């Protein structure tokens, strides 16, 4: 019933919005501009100093008198003098036209509408692309939040119904509490239905446990999951699509893989492996090779090498250079002996 009322209200609103013509929008602009310039409550008649029943001749006479007062030549240096004089001419033209005056009198008696149509406001304010995007994001996120809230309320009712069915199966129709645990089967698939052969087929039967006021779903492995209001997912602004997208992108930007956490790049990690492998040639050294320790051991070796380096990247020495170091040392000692 509420949906029908909402549809009817929207239909009336759309009809009212579509009823505003270009001339009506011109009147709306003049009314707003006149009140902003001359004061709240100022209307066409009061500004010309005539009554709402004045004749066309009286309006023309009042216009000539008012135009002499507001003419820019007599108001040199006065701010917005040209705008006021031009506005006076438009107001007088509306009141001297029978059709336009009749339309203005309608708004004069019934009041200018607050909502004047999306096209009216869009043409006046001219929102940019950023404003439109922000508006769409807010509207879509608000609608998604309302859907979350509706689903949450629906889930709460479903949970209350399941709890009631479990207690009724455990305690009886009078719902007299029974001490201790009671294992029951609850039909969560609705009332029995007939299959193609005309046989009655029961709904989905679920094993449940009722212990005091608590109700649990019993899994096949023997584990139990509580059924209460916390089972339902509460609505949250953070779960709307835009904030979820921003959070996901931010997580991807700030997320670090294993090598980044260790503080070394892949190239530095390979060099560190060479340093670690140099000491593993000797038996009983205690160093783990990739074949022995697997990927986990290799990662630990990298982390250890990085930690030993003080958390900073340093260039490792290859095996070939390590083998050359003793030869260079012997050559240095021979040269010193000859001297």
Automatic annotation (TrEMBL):
<dbReference type="InterPro" id="IPR036869">
    <property type="entry name" value="J_dom_sf"/>
</dbReference>
<dbReference type="GO" id="GO:0012505">
    <property type="term" value="C:endomembrane system"/>
</dbReference>
<feature type="compositionally biased region" description="Low complexity">
    <location>
        <begin position="329"/>
        <end position="339"/>
    </location>
</feature>
<feature type="domain" description="J">
    <location>
        <begin position="43"/>
        <end position="108"/>
    </location>
</feature>
<feature type="region of interest" description="Disordered">
    <location>
        <begin position="256"/>
        <end position="339"/>
    </location>
</feature>
<keyword id="KW-1133">Transmembrane helix</keyword>
<keyword id="KW-0732">Signal</keyword>
<dbReference type="Pfam" id="PF00226">
    <property type="entry name" value="DnaJ"/>
</dbReference>
<feature type="signal peptide">
    <location>
        <begin position="1"/>
        <end position="19"/>
    </location>
</feature>
<keyword id="KW-0812">Transmembrane</keyword>
<keyword id="KW-0472">Membrane</keyword>
<feature type="transmembrane region" description="Helical">
    <location>
        <begin position="128"/>
        <end position="147"/>
    </location>
</feature>
<dbReference type="InterPro" id="IPR052606">
    <property type="entry name" value="DnaJ_domain_protein"/>
</dbReference>
<feature type="compositionally biased region" description="Basic residues">
    <location>
        <begin position="311"/>
        <end position="323"/>
    </location>
</feature>
<dbReference type="InterPro" id="IPR001623">
    <property type="entry name" value="DnaJ_domain"/>
</dbReference>
<feature type="compositionally biased region" description="Low complexity">
    <location>
        <begin position="276"/>
        <end position="288"/>
    </location>
</feature>
<protein>
    <submittedName>
        <fullName>DnaJ-domain-containing protein</fullName>
    </submittedName>
</protein>
